[in-house]
Design goal:
By secondary structure, the protein is an all-alpha fold. It folds into two domains: 62 residues; 110 residues. It is built from seven helices and no strands. It starts with a helix and ends in an 11-residue tail after the last helix. InterPro entries: YjdF-like. Keywords: Membrane, Transmembrane, Transmembrane helix. Pfam families: DUF2238. This is Membrane-spanning protein.
Length: 194
């Protein structure tokens, strides 16, 4: 897993640095903050290497970089946000599903395994939906702060965009929550094994 994180992180960091330089040369005045944010987001999985054990596996890392491709490369650099009106909402649904998937991995690793307890599937459903909704709210806050300080294109239609994105995020959480509900159905009333 470490090798995968190193390789993907370096590829994405290099790509983001190149796109940052191109944007600077084209006179994009917001490129410092956008480029810096993209480089930091590309390097985040490197932080996992400081932990000896992590609940995240290769599919989680690949999913993260898949979202970066869709958001930064296709969405921002190749202007999918402008070309396809459905792109933003779709990414909010998929992004909240991804956050819920990570939350489920953390829940299984940090709560179920050490506790060795009886667990209700509804607790998992609520936890997964809650984490997806919190993730959507944090992302919308970042968009709002970004529009107030750096750019003005993240929330183009104001409250309509914000509420549409929050509803899409909730929908993604519910979808993965339902998946977790049925996937973990056999665990109800049974003792978890570590």
């Amino acid at each position: 897993m470490k090798k995968t994180i190193y390789i993907l992180s370096l590829i994405f960091i290099c790509f983001m640095l190149v796109s940052f330089v191109i944007e600077l040369r084209n006179g994009d005045t917001n490129s410092w903050t956008k480029g810096g944010g993209r480089v930091i987001m590309s390097a985040l999985p490197l932080g996992l290497l400081f932990f000896q054990r992590t609940p995240f596996r290769i599919p989680h890392i690949l999913g993260y970089y898949g979202l970066l491709v869709c958001t930064f490369i296709l969405g921002a650099i190749f202007h999918f946000y402008d070309k396809y009106k459905w792109w933003d909402v779709t990414l909010h649904v998929v992004g909240s599903m991804y956050i819920a998937w990570l939350a489920l991995a953390i829940y299984r690793y940090k709560v179920l395994r050490p506790a060795d307890i009886y667990i209700s599937r509804w607790i998992i459903f609520l936890f997964v939906c809650g984490m997806a909704t919190i993730g959507s709210a944090i992302w919308e806050s970042i968009e709002f702060i970004g529009d107030m300080t750096v750019t003005s294109v993240m929330q183009r239609s104001g409250n309509t965009d914000t509420m549409t994105d929050l509803i899409a995020g909730l929908l993604g959480g519910v979808i993965l929550g339902i998946y977790a509900l049925f996937r973990n159905k056999p665990l109800e009333g049974k003792k978890m094994r570590g």
